[in-house]
Amino acid sequence: MKVQELRELTNEEIAVRRREARQELLHLSVQQASGQVENTGRFRQIKRGIAQMETILSERRLNIVVTSGPKKEKKAKVEAPAADKPAAKKAAKKAAKKAAKKAE
């Protein structure tokens, strides 16, 4: 379930869904112990869902208002020229030393 859908539910509905998710997690644990689990990725999905539900309940308890607006675009990362990077400087210095040593 998406977070936006969870936010539309009441606290009681979220608590019920959280309880059901915990029970499902317990059943999956038992199945895993007996070697019957087919989809191990389901553990992660359930745990993530429980964490999202608990986060929403905590936000409501603490009166934190969360607005989900449009996501911001990431700015393009500008690379520094190779000579400005510390590793490049170190390599250039080492090469210069090696050349000077050969010249002797």
Descriptive report:
The chain has 104 residues and is mainly α. Helices cover 64% and strands 0% of the residues. The protein has four helices and no strands. Helix 2 runs antiparallel to helix 3. The longest helix is centred in the N-terminal third of the chain and has 23 residues. The chain is elongated, with a radius of gyration of 27 Å.
Comma- or semicolon-separated keywords:
104 residues; mainly alpha; 0% strand
> Could you tell me how far the N terminus lies from the C terminus, measured between alpha carbons in angstroms?
71 Å
Strand content: under 5%
Shape, per Cα inertia axes: elongated
What's the gyration radius in Å?
A: 27 Å
State the helical fraction.
55-70%
Largest sheet properties: none
Number of strands: 0
Helix tally equals 4
Mean pLDDT: 85
* Element-by-element helix/strand order: HHHH
| Helix-strand category | mainly alpha
- Low-confidence runs (pLDDT<50, min 5 residues)? none
